[in-house]
Amino acid sequence: MIIDIKVPVLAESVAEATLLDWRYRPGDAVTADEVLVEVETDKVVLEVPVPESGILKEIVRETGASVASEEVIARIDTEGAAVAPAAPKPQEAPQPVSEQTEAEALSPAVRKLVAEHDLDPAAIAGTGKEGRLTKGDVLAYLQTRERPSAPPPAPRSPPPASPSAPVVERRGVRLVPMTRIRARIAERLLEAQQNAAILTTFNEVNMQPAMELRARHKDEFEQVHGARLGFMSFFAKAAVQALKRFPVVNASVEGPDIAYHDYYDIGIAVGSPRGLVVPVLRDVDRLSFAAIEAKIAELGEKAKKAQLTIEELSGGTFSISNGGIFGSLLSTPILNPPQSAILGMHKIQERPMVERGEIVIRPMMNLALSYDHRIIDGREAVQFLVTIKAALEDPGRMLLEL
Predict the structure, then answer these.
(1) Does a structural domain hold residue 136?
(2) Global model pTM greater than 0.85
(3) Do 233 and 380 share a domain, yes or no?
């Protein structure tokens, strides 16, 4: 029986997707639930599993092709798995593999890259099935390949330019097409700068009270709740408290109207191998510190494995970005449309501070709030940030909702 393999149903806002590297080639045996290929949209990477065991009969759309929702991309022969293997032939002395056989083992996308850059496939480590080369292996090799110290030989006449070529090289420059996710990130960031009146206000917070509270209870917290106690839960709770006090910061612009949200879905910016993603914590006002930390850990792990769903990346009324984990001392975070504000956390650094007329050393963090000045006034933005500062410098205020 021949089964069609189709692109998963995409969200209404996603017009098309891109096929990433195929894990198998026609003629390979495939097992149910194994990942056959990945499909990259401008939001997430979706896995296409094998529905039933059999033989991969045909690949309809090759790596790099643009595909639509529910489009047929491959076919599997489920009866192929039931065919008994032929009796093994007497073992013969190994014969050298011909260049033609090696070439046939490569996918069309890999053959094209190898030919364009005059590469020796044997010099590139393959990570595919049975050590086969994938497109990603070749691209990684091109990126890490050292330039020769001696002048290169006179170049051959370049092949005609091809708009579909995934990588274009010229002296000292490599042009690599953006992934759909990276292109979407660029589009949204540019949209935010063009369509909003972005302003940023700053403050600093003494993290010593929160750090002391965390140090006292982190071991017991992990034993009881099975989650590590970080600082993001403190900031998320402080943000909810400030959002309740200043609802316009939790609002967004919808045409001529201001849409006020009576719920608190906070996006947490996370770096992933494919770029920045912002998974959303739903109803943070109803979550405990433990639930927030557990959910952040879960979403962070999914981001690393490119397993976030469109639902987990959609929505959000406010965002938090932590550049401090990368060493940033100060930055101006950019809005995540259609949201109207984003809080930026930064590196905790000991600094001399004056308290009651004396100079003391305190672990300080710079905070930044970028906001859409079309609906949020400077007074509200400053007071919002002061509210977060007060909550973090006296964490008990969050428990008492002061």
Answers:
(1) no
(2) no
(3) yes
Whole-angstrom Cα distance, residue 95 to residue 194? Answer: 63
**Residue 292 is inside which H or E element, if any?**
helix 289-304
Q: Which helix or strand (DSSP H or E) is residue 191 part of? A: helix 180-195
Q: Which residues are the active-site residues? A: 373, 377
Domain that residue 192 falls in: 182-400
- Biggest CA–CA distance in the chain, Å, is 92
Among 335, 336, 204, 318, residue whose Cα is nearest residue 260: 318
Q: Is residue 265 part of a domain?
A: yes
Q: How many domains does the chain have?
A: 2
We report the CATH number of the domain holding residue 303 as 3.30.559.10
Per-residue confidence of the chain (402 residues) as pLDDT tens digits? 888 888 887 765 566 788 887 888 888 888 888 888 888 776 677 778 888 888 888 888 888 888 888 888 888 888 764 444 444 444 544 444 444 445 546 665 667 677 777 787 777 877 665 666 776 677 767 766 644 444 444 444 444 444 444 555 567 788 887 777 777 778 777 888 888 899 999 999 999 999 999 999 989 999 999 889 989 999 999 999 999 999 999 999 998 999 999 999 999 988 776 677 888 999 999 999 999 999 999 988 888 877 787 788 888 999 999 988 888 999 999 998 889 999 999 999 999 999 999 999 999 999 999 999 999 999 999 999 999 999 999 988 777 666
